[in-house]
Amino acid sequence: MRNRLFALGLFLAVALAQTTPAALAQKTQTRGDWAALQTLSPGEKIVVKTKDGDRFTGRFESASDILLVFEDDGRKVSLARDSIRLVQLNRGKSRLRGMLFGAAIGGGIGLGVGSVLYLPYRDDIVGTTVPAAAALGASIGAGIGAATAKGNKNETIYEAP
User: Fold this and answer.
1) For residue 114, with 0-12 CB atoms within 10 Å meaning exposed, 13-18 middle and 19 or more buried, which class applies?
2) Is the pTM above the cut of 0.85?
3) Thinking of the domain 31-90, which architecture would CATH place it in?
């Protein structure tokens, strides 16, 4: 029984780990390039994180060599280049990422519930209870995760060195 649970857990971990290289391969732009920020069109949605830990979301207006100007909730915000840690383009929510997170959480919960149901009655219940509960939990979690779209598709434009 432990071998089956270990094999199922290992399979889920490997399956989730396979998504990481694809996400890393999409980043082709150099992150420390302030000139890339200056080429943005006015009105694009951006996310700005400062070195102080503040997070702003708004619409890009302009960028000079030392200053970034954008509109956040109807007010104009100007930040010096030295105070900015990260600037990202806001591309919306990612249903795929939400589905993967939901599947992982649901699969873990299903694995736990299946184990609780199976272990006390292992002589009377077929050994597929645990994997079936994990698969059911993963599919329910994937559906909820895709519906709520937890995750984002932000693309990093500038990251301070």
Assistant:
1) buried
2) no
3) Roll (2.30)
